[in-house]
Amino acid sequence: MVTDMIGTGSFAQHALIDGETKLNMKSAVKAFKQNNPACLDIKMVVVDKDFSEIEVLAEALPEARREISKVYGSTTFEKTHAKNLVTLMARTTDEREFDRYLQALQTLSKGKPQFYEYLESNWLSCKDYIHAWEHTSLEQQYEQPIRG
Question: pTM to 2 decimals?
Fold first, then answer.
C-alpha cells in the first residue's frame, strides 16, 4: 500500500515470499522498484513488523525515512501476552490462578469487546473442559497400581 501526503492510499504491489529472509526481501523490493518508477520519490516507509525489513529498505531506498508501525508494535505485544495468559489459564491446576489470569486477560482486552466476546463464547462457556485443576485428581487416580 502506498499513501500520498494527504493520506490517499492505493495498492502498489503484493509479493508472496517464502520466508522473510534478507535475499527474499531484496527481491521483493527490486520488483517493486522495477514496477513503480516513481518509487525514487518515496519519503517515508512504515515497516509493520520485521526489523530485517528496515535494513533492506535502508539499502534500497536510502532517501526514505523508516519507522516501525506503532499500531503493529502494540498489537504484537498484546497478542503475545494474550496467548501467554490463555496458555496459563489452560494449564493451571488452581481455580484461583485461573481467575487471576482471566482478570489479567480482561484488563488486557479492554477496548476490544470482540476479543472478550469470543473468549466468553468459545472458552469460558466450556470452562469445565479447559481447566486442569479437576483433571489432576483424575490423573492421580489412573497412576495408582492396578490390583488384581
Answer: 0.42
Give residue limits of the domains in the chain. Answer: 2-68, 72-135
- 140 φ, ψ (degrees, to nearest 5): -65, -35
Query: What is the model's pLDDT at position 140?
Result: 54
Type of residue at 25: M
* pLDDT for the residue numbered 128: 62
Distance CA 123, CA 118 (A): 8
For residues 65 and 42, the answer to whether their CB atoms sit within 8 Å is no
For 119, other C-beta atoms within 10 Å of its C-beta total 19
Which three cell numbers, joined as nine digits, stand for 102?
A: 482471566
Q: Exposed, middle or buried: residue 86 (CB in 10 Å: 0-12, 13-18, 19+)? A: middle
**Cα–Cα nearest to 28, from 7, 64, 69, 39:** 39
Length of the chain equals: 148
| Maximum alpha-carbon separation in the chain | 83
Give the number of other Cβ atoms within 10 Å of residue 78's Cβ.
Answer: 14
Going by pLDDT thresholds of 50, 70 and 90, the confidence category of residue 111 is confident
Count of beta carbons in the 10 Å neighbourhood of residue 121: 10
